[in-house]
UniProtKB/TrEMBL annotation:
Residues annotated as signal peptide: none
MF (Gene Ontology): glycerone kinase activity
PANTHER family linked to this entry: TRIOKINASE/FMN CYCLASE, TRIOKINASE_FMN CYCLASE
Assigned keywords, A-Z: Kinase, Transferase
Gene Ontology cellular-component terms listed: cytosol
Domain of life (superkingdom): Eukaryota
Keyword Disulfide bond: no
Protein name per Swiss-Prot or TrEMBL: H.polymorpha DL1 DNA for region containing 9 open reading frames
Organism for this UniProt entry: Pichia angusta
Amino acid sequence: MGGTSGGLYSIFISALAKSLKDRELQQGGYEVTPEILAASLKDALDSLYRYTRARAGDRTLIDALAPFVEQFAASKGDLNRANKACHEGAESTRKLKAKFGRASYVSEEEFKPFEAEGGLPDPGAIGLAALVDGFAEAYSKIGSNL
């Protein structure tokens, strides 16, 4: 894992776990429903935003994460739709100029060989999309409602 993605994942996952735990304590226990998971994902993204200025459009893993979180909530937990939004966000980075992360200090000339392919996507965004693919595939095999 290169760049700052490890730190971003750590902050996001820790905040997600804290949000889920806080909900459990407030409610005296619960079953994780799509609504609870969506709210906790949103809390985790909001927490991440307190530590990074990166937002969708900055050519980072946020370009995949934010659409995933937003679509998961909007679709009431439809993991397939959220996965699609995540992939679309990751692919959108092909045409973006990097404002944060390692790619932000790589010369634009380095990206020119990939213009014929539509540009080079952000590796962090593509990596996150692959991770979400794994979750979606696992849930489809166990028949989860998410």
